[in-house]
Amino acid sequence: MTNVKDRRREPKGIPTGGRFANENGGGMDASDLDEQEPAFDPKHLTDDDILALRHAKGAELEAALALDEPNVDRRLAFNPNLGWDDLNALRDRQTTDAMRRHILDGMCANPASEGRHMELLAEVKRLPAANRRMAWICMAQNPRLDPKAGARIALDMGTTRAYIPVAETLAGNPRLTDETLAQLVLKFPEDSYLLHRVISNPAAGDNALIAAANRSRDGFDVEEAWSRVGDVRRLADVDVRREPVSRGLARNRTLPDAAGLKAMIGEGPVDPDLARGIAHAPAADASTLVHLARACTRNARVQTEILRASACDDFVRGALGTVSEDPGIRQLAWSTMRDPNGLGLADLNDRPSLIGVCANPRMTEAVAGEIVRKAGAAAATRLKDNESLPEEFRRGLVAAAGWDA
Question: Closest Cα partner for 344 from 301, 303, 381, 373?
């Protein structure tokens, strides 16, 4: 409701009679506008005042410093236009411990403190827990954060909920090392926002990216992480069948191309972890996998990864069935051939190869007959248990081999 107290009415008998008078009817000049604008009050700062103090420079900054007002000083401490000596002068003229702590927060966040972060952390360590966390948050925001100071904060912070704001702020600072970012992930593995911050951080290397991707439930974050992994060895234990992982690897432009992978393989032998990673590299085509199989004839674990690779085809399976020194791999390679016409290339005098060929679920009557012609009763005995062949045909094979069905 409009307050009409102390307002006069125009006398009756005139056009405006009985109405309330317009107090500004005579017009307003510049002095009236000045009177209506709120004056700057150092003890009651508005959001605009605080923003202006944090970015003041030149004469405005000098005037603000000359006020010698604690409420102004605590905002000026965050001003990047101040030097290190100015920040110390601000703190020295404070009269209370609380205000000195506020100035210390600003010193931690101010780029002018570059090169003195470890010194500041020594002071911060003596503060009460809540004040210490606030100072760490301020330092975590510093665009010139010393990586050693970031590592120290990550090491000293606890793992309770009270430290989550510190960790989340620190995770977004591009001055951190890959090792420190990975440490943050291990401390707060369930914090989805922290995992997102780590993956989005340009300083994140393979350790941090993979640690965050393995714990993230966000498919887009997982995809982003694997699109930036640069070490082929790190692909050794990844489940490339996960859709976010496969999408990320398809986008990856950091990993070597096919020629680079073959150069890594060379003439062998190849480090097992590297070999397993090469098998799942997005650029690994069938010829690369064959090259890898011939360089790793004794390592069954590497050969298993080759068979699981997305680029593995019958050409690769046939190569493994021929060159592998592991009986189980030879048997598995021939039993998983997609085109049964390629089974005739197997060495049927090799028992594991024969078992794999005869157990192939895509066996046809024509191929089975050719195999029995080459291997005789040994092949017929095993083919009789292959349910992909008609029952009558299997009986005929056994009879032809001189066995009683």
Answer: 373
In 76-132, beta strands by DSSP E:
none
**DSSP label at residue 202:** T
Residue 9, SS3 per DSSP: strand
> Amino acid letter at 336?
T
Query: DSSP letter at 269?
Result: -
> pLDDT of 191-242, one tens digit each?
999 999 999 999 999 999 999 999 999 999 999 999 999 999 999 888 888 8
| Strand partners of residue 9 | 20
Percent helix / strand / coil, the chain, rounded to 5: 60, 0, 40
Contacts of 157 (CB under 8 A, 6+ apart): 133, 136, 163, 166, 167, 187
Provide the 8-state DSSP code for 20.
Answer: B
For residue 178, give the 3-state DSSP assignment.
helix
| Residue 402 pLDDT | 60
- Pairwise CA distance, residues 198 & 212, whole Å: 7
| 265: nearest Cα among 236, 303, 295 | 295
Indicate the burial class of 1 (C-beta count within 10 angstroms; 0-12, 13-18, 19 or more).
exposed
Highest mean pLDDT: which range of 54-63, 179-188, 368-377: 179-188
List pLDDT tens digits, range 111-147. Answer: 999 999 999 999 999 999 999 999 999 999 999 999 9
